[in-house]
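Q: For a teaching session next week I want to show students how multiple molecules come together into a single three-dimensional assembly. I've collected the sequence lines for a complex. Could you give me the predicted structure tokens for the whole thing so I can convert them for display?
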Amino acid sequence: MRAVRYHDCGEVNVLRVEDCERPEPAHDEVLVEMRAASINPIDAILREQGAPRLPKTTGSDIAGVVAAAGADVDNHEEGDRVFATGLHVGRFGGGSFADFAVVPTDLLAPLPDGVDFEEGAAVALVGVTVWRAMVHHAHLEPGATAFIHGGNGGVGHVAVGFAAALGATPVATARPEYHDAVRGLGAAAVIDYTRDDLTEAAVEATGGADLVLDALPGTYFDTDVAVAGFGGDVSVLAGDEATLSDVPAARSKELDIHMMSMSNLATHPDAPDIGPILDRLGRLVAEDRLEVVIDRTYPLEDAAQAHRAIMEESFLGKIVLTP
Amino acid sequence: MRAVRYHDCGEVNVLRVEDCERPEPAHDEVLVEMRAASINPIDAILREQGAPRLPKTTGSDIAGVVAAAGADVDNHEEGDRVFATGLHVGRFGGGSFADFAVVPTDLLAPLPDGVDFEEGAAVALVGVTVWRAMVHHAHLEPGATAFIHGGNGGVGHVAVGFAAALGATPVATARPEYHDAVRGLGAAAVIDYTRDDLTEAAVEATGGADLVLDALPGTYFDTDVAVAGFGGDVSVLAGDEATLSDVPAARSKELDIHMMSMSNLATHPDAPDIGPILDRLGRLVAEDRLEVVIDRTYPLEDAAQAHRAIMEESFLGKIVLTP
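A: Of course. Below is the structure for the complete assembly, covering every listed component.
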């Protein structure tokens, strides 16, 4: 089978489409025949900075058909449509950019009828991340206001739709060319993030946000604190360093700041299973209560283009790979 | 009656013991005859940086006897022993460093028999703060480990005792001269905070803390993140600016950082009432399950000494004022 792998970390050109042996599922794994995979920034970051296990097959998300099930697997059988995420973590050498991937059952859920493989692969990692940020950490409630940085991005556009689906009011930032589309996903207001008065505009549009979702690599901590209302939650999904210039302001608002990593669910035994979250995300997509947008699709051979695009290009939604 | 007031913010010498008219309680307030008050850093900070309403009577905490009750007060009557906190906030011009103070009933609880007025005044603000940090925000559980900066301080020494009282394991920092005393309050280990390897020692002693309580004015954010374990809570009670040098480390631990201010409970209508928390603190002290340490006592006339000591001196526990 083909797999897109790297043997050393580095630029996009370390990626190779290689011919590998088809893996065998362990007792608690299923072998999935890939019909769609999606690209996430973490895939490119790992490729640049180094994965714990090399060679590494790139790719976190997969949707496909069960080709074989391990000896202890009794709830998935050959031919089942499934989707999964978490394959980027150090636990795995094998990711989703391959004709087949082995997946532990805690990372997997059935893909409902009426949900494309492309949609399943596209929603998996970003959807689980948004779920954890908004539900598990921030306990976002109907009628609450959520301020979402980058409402056209992979995480951001699902966050907008998910906040709307649970009865909250999303306010997002985006470049002007995406404003209509982000409004179409459910945003009550969309703010150009290049505005000088971004913070003031966000405070006005949200009235003080109950939740701020910060998935941007730069440091927006001060904006997050300024936009959050009293008792608000700030979920931080990215970034390398952060400065809180005004700790008393954050304290006077009694803010809860949630530091999150998309990888933790697949690495920590006491973290909640990914499967049940994917299961619910799948239902929301099947019932048209949550939309995942696919900007474009590449064939597996062009995985390097997907890796380049995820870090360098601006687009709406997700980029998907197919066999 | 006498009141220790300031008409302008500034150094300790702005404090004046003045002769004022005894206040009248409003419909939902009680008039408390002060038997003890305690000094907290916030009192000195407000005096230095300016209170919203001037002139301001200094002092946040009070314990005493009800001298009169407002028309709508039916659960407190003349002669009742009570204690209260929150009198430092902008809502009040009148604080606790006076012969009498008016107190809204939501800031008040009965002082149980067997609890001194001095103990009641000493435990009030720091106890409510610790309760919120450990119970409301961090949901500290029995068997969990709490790392407490400054285990000899006003907040810290109550935090050590409170963590032990709820079945958790406190590990604290303190100067060597306080180690025995802090161990006596319930700390499983005490670490000299001047050690070069403070972080490593704290990680070893806690095994990765479930809760870090950071009540220090400097920025210990990086230490907090390093000492916290996976899924840990960091409660930040002080500080002006903070830098998280390693956001990915904090994210990979899935930390929840709680920014808290001791003033919020008394200023925000949707925050929990102080009274019920004080009520429980009083029971713990009455039952000898929580100890509050009083380092020394000054008469009201020497309030300036208390203001100076709280910012400049190192001591164990609390400093109390009496009439």
